[in-house]
Specification:
The structure is a homodimer of 223-residue chains. Chain A is an alpha/beta fold and 223 residues long. Chain A has one domain: P-loop containing nucleotide triphosphate hydrolases (Rossmann fold, 3-Layer(aba) Sandwich). Helix content of chain A is 37%, strand content 20%. The first copy, chain A, is built from 8 helices and 8 strands; from the N terminus they run E-H-E-H-E-H-E-H-E-E-H-H-E-H-E-H. A 7-stranded parallel beta sheet of chain A has the order 4-3-5-2-6-7-8, sandwiched between helices. In chain A, helix 2 packs parallel to helix 3. Chain A starts with 5 loop residues before the first strand and ends with a helix. At the A-B interface, strand 1, helix 3, strand 4, helix 4 and helix 5 of A face strand 1, helix 3, strand 4, helix 4 and helix 5 of B.
Chain lengths: 223, 223
């Protein structure tokens, strides 16, 4: 393949959110609430994955969900209808991500009594959400097969900040040029410690392993 | 379906880019260059669609491409190898979008002599790129079938600012719950004037209509 010209365009700098995120984590720790931040591209299956996962876990712990979107409330309604748990919608007013203060505003809208696991479904976006610590204890992301196995090359920060990469829509692997082993290798390049869970949220295949990982993390946090 | 709680989180404000974008459009007009801004989620097929489209148009006009990504240069190389046209990579240094000034920096890296159509492949992101006028004459976006037909509900601004919505990966329609008519209706809600082109970039089906639209726009601009 040929070489091409590369131009480095300047970047603006963000600040000060990290301290706030640490403070939020401390607050949550003292209340015994584990916050999971779930990120992905638009349409990779965050909501369907959450429904499957929550239905496996809800008998074992108290769970609440915050659904962040630019607009609409379809996801929060879907979660509530399909799982019966507490689910609220956060509208970001056009913002492309959530920071710790925005997450705190969301948490204030939840009834946290009896909640062990609060899940933030972040705005569908592989770029900005990765740049802002939300105060979550763990970050997870979903990469879906139709998006392509090269995404860790193009969105390095997202893969670096995530403890878990869920590879969703494995049922359509035969119809896409997606090399699972190559993808695992690209993920390792960005983050050697990331756990990878291939799943099919539509059928439920593989979701139990992701749910078990969450349960272990929550139990760990509460000790 | 049940109602759920909705919390409106505050938004920060952007400024001043619009004037710069108008100035850039004027500069391009005086040089006879039409700038097309192509946006989409990660993995929706921007690069493959461009390759198909450029190969239909390159005998009829001078074309150059700017590929914007957080990192990697795989797309610019792919375009160059598959079409032979001038193709450069823009690294945004982590930035989630391009504004007019960043686009101008990119254009300065192109040899514009003999170029009628400059294409900016924006960062894969349905949120931020929609908020910044790049100075392009027209905005186009790609929505791929696996992302779901509800995206116009969740990412309203992106669909509002686009003159064209290309619906890609129609070959996998049988494997996804994607209702093409419902999707057209949602797009109309956001933007009654948007043109919709269903295509399959992999096989080339439908790409000719999108290419013909571009050609008409370029000819119009150059008069």
């Amino acid at each position: 393949m040929d070489q091409v010209k590369i131009i480095e365009i300047k970047k603006s700098v963000f600040e000060d959110n990290n301290k706030d995120a640490d403070a939020l984590r401390q607050e949550l720790k003292s209340r015994g609430v584990f916050l999971l931040n779930l990120m992905s591209s638009p349409g990779s299956g965050k909501t369907t994955t959450l429904i499957r996962t929550i239905n496996l876990l809800k008998g074992r712990m108290g769970i609440a969900v915050m659904e962040a979107d630019i607009d609409s409330d379809v996801d929060a309604i879907k979660i509530k209808d399909a799982t019966g748990i507490q689910s609220i919608q956060l509208h970001t007013g056009g913002m492309c991500h959530l920071d710790a203060e925005m997450t705190r505003q969301g948490l204030q809208g939840l009834e946290l009594e009896g909640i062990d696991l609060a899940i933030l479904e972040n705005v569908g976006n592989l770029v900005c959400p990765a740049e802002f610590d939300t105060g979550a204890v763990r970050n997870a992301m979903i990469l879906s097969v139709p998006e392509g196995d090269d995404k860790p090359l193009k969105y390095p920060l997202m893969f670096s900040v995530c403890d878990v990469v869920v590879i969703n829509k494995t049922d359509v692997l035969p119809f896409f040029d997606f090399d699972l082993e190559k993808c695992r290798e690209y993920i390792r390049m960005r983050n050697p410690n990331a756990q990878v869970f291939p799943i099919c949220a539509k059928t439920g295949e593989g979701v139990d392993a992701f749910a078990a990982w969450i349960e272990a993390q929550v139990n760990d946090w509460k000790q």
